[in-house]
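Input chain follows. Return structure tokens only.
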Amino acid sequence: MEKRLFLLDGMALIYRAYFAFIRNPRITSQGDDVSAIFGFLNTLFDIQKKYTPTHLAVALDVSGPTFRHEIFPEYKANRDETPEAIRFAIPVIKELLEILNIPTLELAGFEADDIIGTLARQAQQQQFETFMVTPDKDYAQLVDETTYMLKPGRGGGDPELLDKQAICEQWNISRIEQVIDVLGLAGDTSDNIPGVPGIGPKTAQKLIATYGSVENILENTDKLKGKQKENLENYKEQALLSKKLVTIHCDVPLTLSPDQLIPGEPDHEVLKTTLAKLEFKTMLRRLYDEQPAESNVPPDDLFGATTTQAPATSPSTFKTLNDVPHTYHPITTAEQREELAAQLLQQESVCFDLETDSLDVKEAKIVGVAFAIKPHEGWFVHLPADAEEKKAALLPFLPFFENPAITKIGQNLKYDLNVLFWNGITVHGTMIDTMVAHYLIDPDQRHNMDHMAESILHYSPIPITALIGEKKKDQISIEEVPLEQLTDYAVEDADITLQLWHHLKVELSNKQLETVFFEIEMPLLPVLAQMEQNGIMLDVETLNRQSNQITQKIGELEQTIQTKAGMPFNINSPKQLGEVLFDLLRIVEKPKKTKTGQYQTNEEVLSELAPDHPIVQEILQYRQLTKLKNTYLDALPNDVYTLTGRIHTSFSQAVTTTGRLSSQNPNIQNIPVRTEEGRQIRQAFIPKSGFKLLASDYSQIELRIMAELSGDEGLQQAFQSGEDIHAATAARVFDVALSDVTREMRSKAKMVNFGIIYGISAFGLAQRISIPRGEAAEIIKQYQQAYPGVQDYLDQTIAFAQQHEYVETVTGRRRYIRDINAKNGMVRSGAERNAINAPIQGTAADMIKIAMIRVQKILEEQATKTTMLLQVHDELVFEVAPDEQEQLIPLIETEMKNAIPMKTPILIESGMGANWLEAH
């Protein structure tokens, strides 16, 4: 009998199962989301039934850093927090695998793909056929004559079996090992692997087809031209690093005999009981042809997970456009456009949606506009391809878009506003964005239209691939789609968005979120659109100069480090670095090691050693400067829009769970400020000629909100008297006169002040300020005695969360804390910290949002030349006309102070300058 080894990429399959059901999750009668468990088991059982493997194992990732984090600390740093349903699923799946008697493999410091790669190579030597079951494209690099990829099918379809020839055809490569080169050049946003700016998968494939490898491309950049040549030369090290990060290691210290990978006989009685507790009735019938076994143990007691009171649901067949009567009209003639435009002007509200050919709002061409004013009916205005004809065709709709009396409804509406702006049309009126509405109702869910349609309307919209094709290389452009198909697709979007709004507005009312939605988030939406359109100028020469200076410093540090080591070595190699520090230099007697025996050289370990070892300090500085150069100095110039000379970041209202704004393309929120070199980056953000930048910043806003919410007299008194709050806290905690507070006391008090907001523990405080845990516990105890109102507030907040499973800001914004009653102590503690922090951070977010709305109104009413450009944390940045600064600064500060009336004094610090650094 042929030996057939099936290796399952556990986490990838768990995530895939979770998202497959996210539009209609499987919820038990006890409120547990078991979608990921159900989907994973289905995949596992289908493989066993269809392929009858002789050998089988599931590889899982271990939480914690891997060797890739040591090479590149930002690896996977952009990943969202693990969904609650997946956190619930993982231990359950592990227990089920044990019940099923299926080998489970995991190893600290390595990922599942490294484990699978290692076993695949070992299996090859023992004449196995190996099948890697995973949706992850990275595994393509492991495929050879006896090793295959088995990609689970979509929507219950057949899995796709990929051999060496199929991979080479899909990737347009001649050798399997070139998969790594393509991945390295293109990078991977999901894993935060940078790649080379401006090079996507298709360009990477063309370059590899010509030059064969990343290394060969870098040796032949003189044969390239323009931005591509420039980026490959500037990002040479980043390209090589990315290739290293995407390479799956096949030498994991894990040796298993084939017998250890033979699945055993399941414990059928325990399996039946377990599946019954998970309420997998259909699965039980399929496996055993019987009804589920009775159980006296409630499902939530089985795995110690949180019980929520969500209603039970099960997957169902969604309706589609073919199942629903509808009337969708294509509009193609001037007469039809005039008639529709006149009808739109008679409405109180209209839902509209643009069809475009790009996600870049500045470059997107409008293919057409869909309108809906009642469910199941709508119009699609198909626009000519010619720019002038397109402009003329849109002209009748300008009175509608510009009419402030008509409410505009949309999904991700800011995108449409910006596309219209860059096409010469400004939209006025009340805005309704279903994405933001859904975000307010449940910040932890996904907010795209397809997810909402399926979870709320039980309806599955037409996928874009039904129009343009599945495979990228065979896809057509949206302009090539036949009008009838495009009309159905476009109008359906507007129709479904309108239907969603009818449901969401009821839910906003039920959850008392109407004030936040109508008075904060929706008035803010056009303000953010305006700021994105304004953009901010970037002095690229300054960034290039700083990059050159940092490059020189990096080189000097590299030389110094290697001189102290007494030998040349690769500082970016954790293995070589560990050997130099701990074998050659022996800087500590008992260095920490990973489970694989490699020395730990991550930032946490090195930071502990740095005070006593200059070479370690220099290594940390080397890493910090390298990150600064690669992530900011060399990357920001690529975000400058050629036509304006500015960067136009995109602000997101529906990302963070606390209500704070985030930004991307580029992410200006993360520009570093804690180091001198990091702060210098702000020097490159400049105003236009004749103007200055104004930065207005809330001072210690979260502490002031804590004083307000807690009502603690001591904390409020400290702010009211204008005392240095950290010195005042130190005086109370250490029981000394204010004049006797030392710098060390103030530093400790500052850490406690800010730590309390984030629910810091004695252990956490001890780590942060390097003191014994007992001393940290005593400091926290003294703090609680000094500010008793604060502790009362924290206790009350946690108690409220335990009762309601959410907390609120001053304005009524909610954050759901569904793990607050978890039986697992670590999970519960994390939920308590979130419960403490969310009302404070969320209120700070609401304050600056309200201020932005009011300040923008002033700027518009006074028709100022001054414009608002950026919002970063608690700071607003303006491009100010010098003759307006004296008048505007007091108005801006007043609106910021009074955004939410408070007894506790709110302090605004403003600065002007020729660049952001000077202003800040």
